[in-house]
Amino acid sequence: MSVRHRKTATLMLVTLLLLSVILGCAKQENTPASTSTNRAANEKSITLSWPRDIGTMNPHVYNPSQLFAQSMIYEPLVSYKQGGKLEPALAESWTISKDGKTYTFKLRKGVKFSDGTLFNAAIVKKNFDAIMKNEKTHSWLGIVGVLDKTEAVDDSTFRMTLKEPYYPVLQDLSVVRPFRFLGEAGFPDDGDTSKGIKKPVGTGPWMLDEYKQDEYATFKRNPNYWGTAPKVDKITVKIIPDGETRVMAFEKGDLDLIYGEGVISLDAFKQLRDTNQYVTTLSEPVGTRSLLLNSSNPKLADLRVRLALQHGFNKQAMVEGVTSGLEETADTVLSKNYPYTNVDLQPIGYDVEKSKALLDEAGWKLPAGGTVREKDGQQMDFELIFDKTDPIQKAMAETIQAEWGELGVKVNLTGLELTVQIKRLRSNQFDLYFWYNYGAPYDPHSFINVIAKKSFGISEVLSALPMKKDLDQQVHEALLSTDETKRQELYASILKTLQEQSAIVPISYIKKTAVYQKKITNFVFPANRDENPFEGIEIGKQLKR
Questions:
Q1: Which of 98, 132, 217, 241 lies 20 to 30 Å from 55, alpha-carbon distance?
Q2: Model confidence over 69-99: pLDDT tens digits?
Q3: 488-495: long-range contacts (C-beta < 8 A, 24 or more apart)?
Q4: Beta bridge partners of 279
């Protein structure tokens, strides 16, 4: 080869090398530092998916902020553990006055927020004041309606006084929102957190590191955390709205963990389980999947219509078909693993002939040659709205549409973003709606509270019930009673009424699913339904990507 040709070849090689370096750098700049391709060899990192953006991480507001992510950053005074046990968290201990109206908390000393500032009674009070400034927003939680005043007695003592006794105070304080604590640096200048926060500053084991809306969020360990430090350095949350895309990303190795409720179809869960390449696990029931029949709609105000609709679909077959038998059919609105719910109630079973007879009796008749029942010139048609990112809701909605269609009931399906769906629930702008009770640690007290409290949608669903005022009074008495026997009687009466009135139709008992790569160990579902699952989780040998 001539010298000139050798020089030309050398120049071309150098050019190609430079080009590859430039392209490599460009690729890195367009990829979040938290993705698997950029992990340091010794960094212990977990990547999971979530169907929607994590939100603003404001501890005192609700959607679009996601509960599991909020619980990574912010902590409660009291922690809810397995078996319903309440344990100290930011409060080391507490005492309750004999009249049940005064709670005094001794706060854990030496706790710091992620920015290094001290946690004390003054910041606890400031958070309580910010929450109570928007009392109406939080009225679904019973403690909000009875809280009278709060005091920072000294740096490590916080006291709250109630207007009247309320037995589930500690359970209410253990939930993920709103009673968790934002550091001073996170507060807006006017102190009104309902309008937003400056930044998410909490005492929890994690802090938000990187964030790109609707794409990803990364969390790193809080260096000032007072408790046992996480065994993982970083958690990356990739936003993947579609369940099938989520599964493909997992199988490619781009995800280490898929966790939650309805995040993938249960068929996909079984298929991943059957490969024996991954670890798959199901939680105990965490809540009841129910269908709300809005009695404020005149067509649904008739008990005969509500009963007919419940009799008119094969719940057992639907649950087995849609959930591949991984969920349990529900005959009662609350499962019997909560306090006060072990009540003998008569199930409302599948009976097509009875359903048709009830609709006929209520005056809804099939016209000659018609397929949709009519009454007084109106068709029997309803809109069923569902979360379009939840494959189980979608499949159940389609099943109900088909089965009720055979009865002469037309069902129009509308898939919505979760935030829009919830707005329509609270504004009472729906006919049929998939709804879940809150689960532990909220229930049964939070469940019965929203039966009576307006503005959260459930009380409005029940508004046409003839005994609604009596039902509300029973709820009030149950939450305030200090007599255990009387409280049990009241719960039994409330649950019996709801069962018979059929405005909240139980479908199945929900379980969380988790599928993860075999390098992950010590994965445990949290006792609190809404907490994150990262406490104690570890990583074995790092897999090659």
A1: 132
A2: 999 999 999 999 987 789 999 999 999 999 8
A3: 488/340, 491/340, 491/341, 491/343, 491/444, 491/448, 492/340, 492/343, 494/448, 494/451, 495/332, 495/333, 495/334, 495/341, 495/343, 495/345
A4: 516
Please check the confidence at residue 489 and state whether its pLDDT lies above 70.
yes
Mean pLDDT of the chain: 90
In angstroms, the Cα distances linking 381 to 302, 366, 407, 408, 425 are 15, 13, 12, 9, 19
Cα 513 to Cα 58, 277, 321, 409, distances in angstroms: 26, 16, 17, 34
Q: How far apart are CA 267 and CA 252, in angstroms?
A: 18
Share of the chain above pLDDT 90, in %: 79
Could you tell me the pTM of the whole model? 0.76
User: Which residues, in sequence order, are bridge partners of residue 375?
Assistant: 378
Element holding 267 (H helix, E strand): helix 266-274
Question: How many Å is the maximal CA-CA distance in the chain?
Answer: 103
Q: State the Cα–Cα distance between residues 79 and 173, nearest whole angstrom.
A: 8
Distance separating alpha carbons of residues 144 and 165, to the nearest angstrom: 12
CA distances from 166 to 140, 162, 215, 445 (A): 14, 8, 42, 10
Whether the Cβ atoms of residue 97 and residue 194 lie closer than 8 Å to each other: no
Residue range 311-361, pLDDT digits in tens: 999 999 999 999 888 899 999 999 887 889 999 999 999 999 999 999 999
Q: Answer for the pair 330, 509: CB distance below 8 angstroms, yes or no.
A: yes
Q: Got the DSSP string for 209-257?
A: EEEETTTEEEEEE-TT-SSPPPS-SEEEEEE---HHHHHHHHHHTS-SE
3-state secondary structure of 196: coil
At 79, phi and psi to the nearest 5? Answer: -110, 140
DSSP strand pairing (234-239 vs 45-50)? parallel
Per-residue confidence (pLDDT) for residue 95, from 0 to 100: 97
C-alpha to C-alpha distance for 258 and 439, rounded to whole angstroms: 21
Contact predicate 371/421, CB 8 Å: no
Asked if 444 and 339 touch (Cβ cutoff 8 Å), the reply is yes
Check pLDDT > 90 for residue 407.
Answer: yes
CA-to-CA distance for 401 and 409, rounded, in angstroms?
8
What is the share, in percent, of the chain residues with pLDDT greater than 70? 91
Helix (H, G, I), strand (E, B) or coil at 40: coil
| Residue whose tokens read 């991984």 | 326
Q: What angle do CA 372, 376, 378 make, to 5 degrees?
A: 45
CA 347 to chain centre: 27
Q: How many CA atoms lie within 13 A of 212 on its CB side?
A: 11
Residue range 472-495: average pLDDT?
93
- What per-residue confidence (pLDDT) applies to 27? 40
**Between the CA of residue 492 and those of 39, 285, 499, 514, 540, what are the distances in Å?**
55, 21, 11, 34, 49
Full DSSP string of 97-158: -TTS-EEEEEEPTT-B-TTSPBP-HHHHHHHHHHHHTTGGGGTTSHHHHHEEEEEEEETTEE
214-257 per-position pLDDT tens digit? 999 999 999 999 999 999 999 999 999 998 999 999 999 999 99
- What single-letter amino acid sits at 83? G
